[in-house]
Amino acid sequence: MSKAVKEKRVKAVPIWMGVLVFLLAFGAGVASKFAIQPGWAKEYSLAWSDELGTRLIDLPYGDGEANKFDLYLPKDGGKGSYGLVVYLHAGGFTAGDKSGDVKMLSWLCKKGYVAAGINYTLFAELEGGATNGASVLTQSEEIRDAIPKVIEAAEKEGYHIDSMAISGGSAGHALAMIYAYRDAGQSPVPVKMTFGAVGPSCFHREDWDNYGFDRETEESYQGAAGIFSAMLGEMLSVEEIKDGSYLEKMKPISAAGWITTDAPPTVVAYGTYDRVQPFKASLRLKAALEENGVDYRYFELPHSGHGLQNDHALYRQWMETVEEYLDKYMPVK
Amino acid sequence: MTLTQKRLLILLVIAVVAFVLGRLAVRAFMNLLLGGTLFGGDFL
User: From B11, which residue of chain A is nearest by alpha-carbon distance?
Assistant: First the structure.
């Protein structure tokens, strides 16, 4: 390359300017990914405001430190009866808080439902390898015991509850499904529907390939025994994993195993590439809903993982369907 | 095309490419944590 051409290029765009523009635009690209929400998403994600109604925080439902719920009461409190929508928080059964779902709960409240976010005792490891005794099983029992208290609290505020829906995200979705399919018979009011996303619904180890539990190795068996034991709150042996007898023990927390023809209508969404919970387990959930003739909608987001983050159009369809099912099975009076 | 026009055009191309790469980088990072494909679905 001749000197003259080189000089001409340098004159066209100085390197420092090109680098600066690149860095600024790269940063803007990163920021835009977090900051810009699709317009439709704002409809389902509202900041809480007193104009929406009344919010009661940290009402107790049990003796545990985490046994608290928030109640969102819609503004127009003079109706004869209301539907209750419970939304359970995500966090892998070990983290999270009901305060993380304010926007979802506010949307439900704005629609005219009494909405509730319920905390549950999170699994924690103590010093020396012991745990605090919490498991998916104890968490599901806490939710089961909380529902009558939530309804009682709403009634006390003058909001008569005649039906409910239960929902959640990830771990919260798993707990919501357990309540809807296992415990709905004990609910003080009929459970009209359930919705949620990316909640693990069963524990066939061959489905859990995202953790390598599908492999026929000692390490895989031990891994499955370790995680499934922690989730169940009861020790499972490697032998039980190998011979498949662990599945019966896991049944109390396997939502899909409780689906019958009486199961409430269901709307769920899963990401094909989920690395946190097994996508394949959701196919068993879908099959169980299908076999039992449940009115359900199953959304597979084919480019997404646990955050359903890469398929906004399908995510929108899922939320619109949730709204459609709420309107159909629990219309606001 | 004047030198200023040329300069603006080149900077614009750099900015667009960098903006796209910035969004792709976030998508790649989120996919690493949660799972997902780098392309397809939403535009970036």
Answer: A18
Say whether A309 and B36 touch across the interface (CB within 8 A).
yes
Distance CA B25, CA A262 (A): 46
- Chain B closest-CA separation from residue A134 CA (Å): 25
Contacts A11 to B, Cβ<8 Å: 3
Put simply, the answer to whether A25 touches B18 (Cβ < 8 Å) is yes
pTM: 0.93
Q: What is the DSSP-derived secondary structure letter of residue A233?
A: T
Task: Kindly report the nearest CA distance between residue B19 and chain A, in angstroms.
Answer: 4
Per DSSP, the three-state class of B1 is: coil
| 3-class SS of residue A133 | coil
C-alpha B9 chain-centroid distance? 16
Q: Note whether B31 contacts A: Cβ–Cβ < 8 A.
A: yes
Q: Which residues pair with A69 in a beta bridge?
A: A59, A118
Q: Are A172 and A92 within 8 A, CB to CB?
A: no
A248 strand-pairing partners: none
CB contact under 8 A, B35 and A310: no
Give tens-digit pLDDT for A179-226. 999 999 999 999 999 999 999 999 999 999 999 999 999 999 999 999
- Here the tokens at position A129 are 């390898």
Residue of A232, A205, A127, A193 lying closest to A330 (CA atoms): A193
Handedness of CA A84, A168, A268, A320 (dihedral sign): positive
